[in-house]
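Dissemination and training. As part of the outreach component of the grant, students in the summer workshop were shown how a complex can be specified as a set of sequence lines and then modelled as a single object. The example used during the hands-on session is reproduced here so that future cohorts can follow it. Participants entered these lines:
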Amino acid sequence: MKATKVFEARDHRWWILYDQEESRVIDSNVYVMESQGQAFLLDPGGFEIFPQVFAALVEAVPPASIQGAFVSHQDPDIASSLPLWHACNPKIQWHIPALWEGFIRHYGALEAPLQDIPDAGGNILIGGRRLEFIPAHYLHSSANFHVYDPEAKVLFSGDVGAALLPPGHGAWVDRRDADGKAFAAHIEKARYFHQRWMPSNRAKNDWIERVSKLEIDYLCPQHGAIYSGPQVQRFLDWFAALPVGSGIA
Amino acid sequence: MTPEQLIRQQQRVMEVVNASFRARQDIDRALRDIDRRALNAMVLVKKHGNALAGYGVVAQAFRERAALLRESASHLQENIAPLIEAQMRILQQQRLLQNFEQMTQSHGEALHGRCVGLKNTRQDFQKIITQEREDARRILRLLLEEVRILQEGVEEQEYVVTNGRIEAALVEGSGVPLMRVSRDMGEAVRIVARAVRDYRQQLERLQNESY
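and obtained this result:
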């Protein structure tokens, strides 16, 4: 996996770890927010890709600087590496949806310090900077959160914005995309994922209404590539128009 | 390996991982500093024409050595990620093996008699761990060799700094602050030397304690 910077302003950085080498499990991105020497992991990934995520992380931050980690929902590609991270650094505080605590402990994390996020969401301070846990329930999991950094204008959007890309993919949806052609090509790789994994049009519309009030420069999904600048609004418009829940014919 | 040995080994690996990050940052920063100082010295020498030609040769050598050090340091980096990855694969497999050990503890060895597949799987995990350990040992040896090469490069750079001090002393009357320039260069090289030495000690401790 590779590590690249998403955002940087003085001692405030966001990193993406992307393009995993193991193709038998779904390709996942892991994000790291760093502020004043303290780091926060977002959706740290599955058990099978842990060694490569960890090696890539060391390109970005020292592991001892990780104060906390966020788990958007209960899926194995998000959180099954939890016991391995816990073995490496037992001080990491895990912020997880309250609804999933008893499920996530099944990954072998009986002793890990889990902090429940209530359904309404909440805030956390990392290195003096505030991160907001934004409710994204039913997108796709029944208790699901995203993370917003108001200073960096980064929205970590979990499975929303996800695309199924081939090995060797880049971290970004092509940023030299004045005419929107790169976005149009990319979004076709996101269509099935959203139609089939997202269950509720009502939840989708509720989320779009909520995040439309945020200033977002970078929309960072857990699979695929980052939307930046005008692509963010393009994505929100595309998602608004897309009927989801296609599993029910 | 006992659970206590496992925990100690894991702690040692994490110390090396964190030390790798610090060493890389310190070395990168100091090498950039060395290059900048060498370039400044060359500009200073050029301004004064032939009078400081001797020091110009030293400054040029200093800069060339700095480029070689950067090259050596980049090889060091190439082996850090595979070492970390190998160590984390060992952790991963040990975690799986641990589950089997716990099961055996609670049900007794008789369980293996009743379930042959379980015994075979446990042996497979042990085999993988042995292979991964061998792989990690090999990478660690490579890494230590890279560190040795880097240390040799630093020693050569220290020699160039000494030459710089001699040249600076010879032209002390020129009014150009070459002694200070040499002192600053020496300090930058010392930072690299210290970072590399500390890192080598961490790696050697891992090598001695783990296997």
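DSSP finds five helices and no strands in chain B. Students were then asked to discuss how this feature might be tested experimentally.
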